[in-house]
Amino acid sequence: MKVQKLLDLSGLGVAMVTPFQKNGQVDFVGLQKLTEYLIKGGVDYLVVQGTTGETPTLSDKEKRATLDFIIEVNNGRLPIILGLAGNDTAALCEEIKSTDLKGVSAILTASPGYNKPTQEGIFQHYKAIDKVSPLPIILYNVPGRTASNVTAETTIRIAKECKNVIAVKEASGNMSQIMHLIHDAPEDFQVLSGDDAFAFPLIACGARGVISVVGNAFPESFSDMVHLALDGKFTEARPIHMRMIKTIDLLFVDGNPAGIKEALSYLNICEKYVRLPLVSITEQTKANLYQSIAESELLNPA
After folding, report:
1. Would you give the end-to-end CA distance of the chain in angstroms?
2. Hey, which of 30, 149, 256, 286 would disulfide with 143, CB 3.0 to 4.6 Å?
């Protein structure tokens, strides 16, 4: 199956959290508030049910309900990217074929976790997905979670042979690997940073943008930085990048999305609650995070 239209993923995509109430139920009021906040904050597209959305703890019914709700609130204003992944290739292909993807612009799918496949296995996994997907595909390389890295060579092979795979969210943390990928990938293949802290330097090296966590809380500031960098205005983008670094680091001290949910609670967007096995950040990290937000003036975009 060949997808004809190339989806432009330049700029800032935000991997949305799934807000929960204290009783553990999905907080749809908070989800509506967050969706509107991101759209008004200048993000370029929304990423639903990724890692930051705590997808492994959502039931099938909750996944469907949250996706439908975001599609309704968004009302066609921004592209929506849906996270669909798994370590059983055949089951994932069936899920893609059976999922109602109306209102979705592309699929974000991480390389298989736990199995630790070889590079050939990773390639064959994406080749199988490429054959069944009715939408463009974004490969997601996040070895810190999957326990297996997708090398630059494998990503380039996928980009050349799997025509529906139009981009990669690169979260390996290996700058040399990512720069190799940017240099050698096909011209129309989009390399996106999967780490907020690397967004600025990777855009300077030719990446098209970032799929972000920090953008949940500070979409306007981060969007300003990303777009200034994409326009080659590095002198103007650099100060925004530098004043965000400490806060970005603190968001991940006690795990994601516990950190970003604490920041969203601070901003009165939604509550901080996460589902087990995740827990909220410590009081010390919370104090450090709040201080960093105040000192960096992230709510006052440059």
Report:
1. 44
2. 149
If you ran DSSP here, which 8-state letter would residue 20 be given? B
Structural element, H or E, at residue 191 = strand 190-193
Using alpha carbons only, give the angle 207, 193, 240 rounded to the nearest 5 degrees.
85
Number of structural domains found in the chain: 1
- List the catalytic residues: 140, 169
**Structural domain that includes position 206:** 11-234
What is the C-alpha to C-alpha distance for residues 36 and 44, in angstroms, rounded to an integer?
A: 13
Asked, for residue 246, whether it belongs to a domain, the answer is: no
CB contact at 8 A, 191 and 205: no
The pLDDT value given to residue 48 = 98
Judge whether 212 and 222 are in contact, CB under 8 Å: yes
- 293 in a domain, yes or no? no
CA distance 288 to 183: 38
122 three-state secondary structure = helix
User: How many helices and strands, by DSSP H and E, does the chain display?
Assistant: 12, 8
In a domain, 280, yes or no: no
Q: Is 81 helix (H, G, I), strand (E, B) or coil?
A: strand
Q: In sequence order, which residues have a C-beta less than 8 Å from that of residue 235 and are 6 or more positions away? A: none
Q: pTM above 0.85?
A: yes
Q: Hey, how many other C-beta atoms are within 10 angstroms of the C-beta on 21?
A: 14
Which residue in this structure is represented by tokens 């690169």?
170
Non-local (6+) Cβ contacts of 175 within 8 A are 198, 201, 202
Per-residue pLDDT tens digits for 5-19: 579 999 999 999 999
Q: Looking at residue 220, which CATH number applies to its domain?
A: 3.20.20.70
Q: Is residue 19 domain-resident?
A: yes
